[in-house]
Amino acid sequence: MTRLPDDFIFGGATAAYQAEGATDIDGKGRVAWDTYLAQEGRFSGNPASDFYHRYPIDLELSQKFGINGIRISIAWSRIFPEGFGKVNQKGVNFYHDLIDECHRRGIEPFVTLHHFDTPEVLFDKGDFLNRETIEHFVNYARFCFDEYGDKVRYWITFNEILSVSAGQYLLGKFPPKEQFQTDKMIQSMHNMMVAHAKTVVEFKNKNLKGEIGIIHILEQRYAYDEQSVLDKKAAQTDDVIANRFLLDLTFLGYPTELTETTIDAVLQLNNFSYTVLEDDRDILKKAAALNDFLGVNYYQSTFVKYYDGENLIQLNGTGDKGTSIYAFKGIGEYKFDMDIPRTDWDWLIYPKGLYDMLIRISEDYPNYRKIYITENGMGYKDIFENEEIDDQPRIDYIREHLKAVGEAIEKGVVIKGYFLWSLMDVFSWANGYNKRYGLFYVDFETQQRYPKKSAYWFKKLSEQKIL
Ligand code: BGP
Q: Which domain of life is it from (predicted)?
């Protein structure tokens, strides 16, 4: 039996672009996704879950179902339509109202400043590859601290720097849809970390009463064949790119020797390099001691086999099981033929990977203060029948991952809460509307909400805290 702590947060996660809809009203500026999704023609960020208008309903439901924390993100381009300069008061007011409503319902808002949605004006000038974006981000963050600082206790600078940088420049699944541009990927990760560091220092200088942290997607890499030296090396290299580089910069302020040599080797495969300024080192070092918490997003782990063929990527964006391919020349290939269950989107269901990751963070970065699991959940093709949704596989998924969290807590890792991705069904960046994650089913035509079986289960769990 696993018992979760009494003060544990049972939360639900959302993100502005995936939940709000209303992408082009009340003065909101465009983001690159608006243009990109229209060009791709598969689906759009409208209506999403129409959270912009329906958040009171979602918060009422949340309260009824025992949820005491919510992740929301502020859409930068609702506040500054161009990313800087002129302020859009309607956008500012919207987040006041949303945050106030969270508090009225007894639900603690954890507010992210950037969840994949740089304003298009800045995106078109190079996004975070352009160092001016760093300064614009810090100014936007400062504005939010001044505006909402008296009522937001938990701030998050960035959601998943890896997903942004790799999605944009390695995997080609985010605009501008480039692949294997590892120099841009690493530079973007570095620059976003500098923006994070500057923002943390800015926040601390203001002596606000809240806390600030960052969210990383942290998923273990294992060697496909534990006996193979090459597979082990492949897993290690992939792990440095995906996990260690960002954790080092977050908690040490500089890359360790292993990280540095691995990143250099990856870049040298294409005669690439990246730029680090002297000031970057100072600010990263300073911020490394100031993070109040780390957000861990975890969905799956990855088994890596050494690979020396041509670069190859095929995204499973439809839930057609068995269609994912990822193979990076000179590094590794992701394997799926182990005896491990996986979702229709080929995500390996492996709770042990979460446990291993939590232990590892606590051992490798003992200056972390506390962890929140800020995203975990199962993409599933929910079936709506007689206004009921039986999502037992999702319940099993959550239970097993929460057990892993409980075991890590027993081993002394400080973990203060869990946010299910997602609170209600939302729009999925690469999959649109058929990959559902929510506790509350959303009929995207009528925008009606229906609690799934998992919502009833989660409510009981939040009351009893026993798994
Ligand atoms: C995380 C993102 C979320 C959400 C989730 C599920 O990486 O922070 O925004 O999208 O993944 O991903 P997907 O919708 O691709 O299944």
A: Bacteria
DSSP 357-402: HHHHHHHH-TT---EEEEE----B---EETTEE--HHHHHHHHHHH
Q: How far is the CA of 429 from the centre of ligand 1 (A)?
A: 7
Rounded CA gap, 92 and 393, in Å? 39
Length of the chain: 467
Domains and CATH numbers, the chain: 9-297+350-461 (3.20.20.80)
Each residue's pLDDT tens digit, 257-293: 999 999 999 999 888 999 999 999 999 999 999 999 9
For 51-79, the pLDDT digits (tens) are 999 999 999 999 999 999 999 999 999 99
Please tell me the distance from the alpha carbon of residue 287 to that of residue 141, in angstroms, as a whole number: 15
Predicted TM-score (pTM) of the model is 0.98
User: To the nearest whole number, what is the mean pLDDT of the chain?
Assistant: 97
Q: Is the CB of 379 under 6 A from ligand 1?
A: yes
Nearest residue (by CA) to ligand 1, atom 6, is: 428
Active-site pick, 108, 375, 387, 388: 375
Residue with tokens 């352009």: 130
**Total Cβ atoms within 10 A of residue 393:** 15
Atom number in ligand 1 closest to CA 217: 7
Tell me if residue 375 is catalytic: yes
Distance of CA 113 from the midpoint of ligand 1 (Å) = 16
The alpha carbon of 206 and the centre of ligand 1 are apart by a number of angstroms equal to 32
Question: How far are the Cα atoms of 93, 189, 272 from residue 418, in angstroms, in the given order?
Answer: 28, 25, 39
